[in-house]
Amino acid sequence: MSYLNSVTIIGFVGADPEQRQARNNNGSKFTVLSVATQRSWKNTDDEWASKTEWHRVCVFRPRLAEYVATTIKKGSHVLVEGNHSLREHLERIPPT
Questions:
Q1: CA distance 61 to 58
Q2: Using one digit for the tens of pLDDT, what is the confidence trace for 39-62?
Q3: Which of 34, 42, 47, 79 is packed most tightly, with the most Cβ within 10 A?
Q4: In this structure, which topology does domain 7-82 adopt according to CATH?
């Protein structure tokens, strides 16, 4: 059985996209950008509350990565479609 791994994010770019180069053998370029999404709701006191979430987006297709790096700027409204990849980070806690 196959499962679908698909994500659609609509939001605003938080900073100008940054073009980077992969550390692997081919050294291909990719672009990284952060996209903010916000959701709003009425809380129990009948007041509006909201929460902003940040999404780190990596563009690996070379021509698309170049296009994003040169055209998209901070504050741009974007729609991103792709697949979701989760990376785990282990935080080192210094001894006390």
A1: 9
A2: 999 999 999 999 999 999 999 999
A3: 34
A4: OB fold (Dihydrolipoamide Acetyltransferase, E2P) (2.40.50)
